[in-house]
Structure of Cystathionine beta-synthase:
Amino acid sequence: MRVHNSLIELVGDTPLLRMNKVTNGLAPTMLAKVEYFNPGGSVKDRIALKMVLDAEDKGLLKPGGTIVEPTSGNTGVGLAIVAAERGYRCVFVCPDKVGNDKLAVLRAYGAEVVVCPTTVAPDHPDSYYSVSDRLASTIPGAWKPNQYTNQNNPQSHYESTGPEIWEQTEGRITHFVAGIGTGGTISGTGRYLKEVSGGKVKIIGADPEGSVYSGGSGRPYLVEGVGEDIWPETYDTSICDEIIAVSDKDSFLMTRRLAKDESLLVGGSCGMAVVAALKVAETASPDDVIVVLLPDGGRGYLTKIFNDEWMADYGFLSTETEEVTAGQVL
Ligand code: PMP
């Protein structure tokens, strides 16, 4: 029988899909690495699996142990799936700005969710950083993966995402474009692709306008999962050849186009990465092969990006036919 014995076996090996319409006739080949094909629906399944397996190897996580992590999104789902499979309890600490749908998904996977106020300072005892630290030190057998410092985050991409892309393109990739959140995806995948190609593959980061990676102050933006107001240890500053800042508006309009034109219902950070990839395509040569990584699916964003009223409230939908302008190159 052609069966899989565990959902975990289905992490990775995601497809590479040619994008035909959003490219508007640009000559270089544009390929999307569609990460919503992972069993938990996002790229974060890769890091969840690697972080848990390594913690088991090092004896940090023992049978019956508890995984404690401040996360409200994709990393939580990935960890919950791996935890259910391997018999661990999960406690996730989320800020109260996180929508109920996201909390419901984590609970549906069997995780316990502790909600903390967003308005307090990070060092306040009720902040979600403080609460997760306290839970990790008081729950017996607790282990905190910490995706912002855990080197298994970039390492999982070095071992899976990078080699997959190299093999799928038969070594023809010339540019890799991805958003930067923890920096794990771009640092691990980028390091592999640079090494295997002898430095030929160009690595381009996409970043929300306002985030530190593209020189911003950390001011707020609406695209979820990418950009930072701090520099995490999981981001290797030596990997990116270029960082392109993209506005919320351009990110969201492209996200909607991806659904309509390419039938790719994906999240806002995917639209952001595609805007940056198209900017790269404008000056690339016709033989170039640009791979852009799309981290998650779009169902978690139906009440925001795919909701006309929400978009209009933020002034993102001024005209129906508005073209997405290219991101600003820094
Ligand atoms: N997009 C989304 C939706 C994410 O959840 C993340 C992870 N924070 C990213 C992009 C960025 O990935 P990374 O953390 O590997 O930089």
Q: What stands out?
A: Residues 152-168 form the longest helix (17 residues). The radius of gyration is 19 Å. The mean pLDDT is 93.
